[in-house]
Amino acid sequence: MQQYEPLPQARGESGTTVTNENAAEDNAGTVGVECDGPILRLTVDRRDRRNALSPGMIDTLVATLTGAATDDDLRVVHISGAGEDFCSGVDWVATNSAGKRPPTGDLVRRIPHTAHRVVELVHSIHLPVVCTVRGWAAGMGCNLAIAADFTLAATDAVFWEPFLPRGFSPDTGSTWLLPRLIGLTRAKRMLLLGEKVAATEAADWGLIHRATAPDELDLATDELLTRLAAAPTVAFGLAKQSLHRNLHTGLTEAMDNELYGLELACRTADFKEGLAAFRQRRSPEFHGR
Fold this sequence. Notes:
Blueprint: H1 7-10, E1 17-18, E2 30-36, E3 39-45, H2 55-68, E4 76-81, H3 92-95, H4 106-110, H5 115-124, E5 129-133, E6 136-138, H6 140-147, E7 150-154, E8 158-160, H7 174-182, H8 184-191, E9 197-198, H9 199-205, E10 210-212, H10 217-229, H11 233-245, H12 251-265, H13 269-279
Parallel strand pairs: 3-4, 4-5, 5-7, 6-8, 7-10
Antiparallel strand pairs: 1-2, 2-3, 8-9
Helix pairs in contact: 2-5, 5-6, 6-7, 7-8, 11-12
């Protein structure tokens, strides 16, 4: 497996793009990594296959998100797809072509540290994660989008879990994420019947944050990224952690989790700034510390 440096070592000046230089040799695609001030922008780029993820692309996502988790200069992560689509999932066609079928046990050994790790990082990292979806978000691409904190999609975008229609069972967190976001009945429609869901319906269901006109999508994304980049980053991460943990707890344990987060948040400079801004009747200027 090719190794990639975590973001703190790989990042350059603001605006620098880092890609998998060896990927082009076998048309395996790239993941653009751009540090735009406090915003980490990841762009999945394999347009000839609707941005299907190759092993090298997945490795890049894992390494970069792992590095982002400990980068004090970052305050928000943005994930998008190049061209007309977001991501059509893992490239199962290439990995299961003649002569390339994975050996027995390969998935169980490898996937928890690759594709599954990407979804876990998006879901658990203390930075806010925003996805912008155009065109297709299918399979892991769909699950990557719904694991994010906020997903904005063009009204003509489509979310699809193609596992059963292709003859195999779901993965990358779909059976965990979907019932919690949209309920068991709708999750069965997507997973067991393989129904495609338009972005407007996905927004109505609560599967995504917002559906917007295609020509307004970039502006809506930038407004949200700017808002999140100016938020109290530490408190955001603690609140995100509590929300996820408290899906599985009773009220008393949930409040204990909240108290843990509050204890830490009250030690931050942003907490002091928030109180000062409240007393002075002005908008706070948070610095993510």
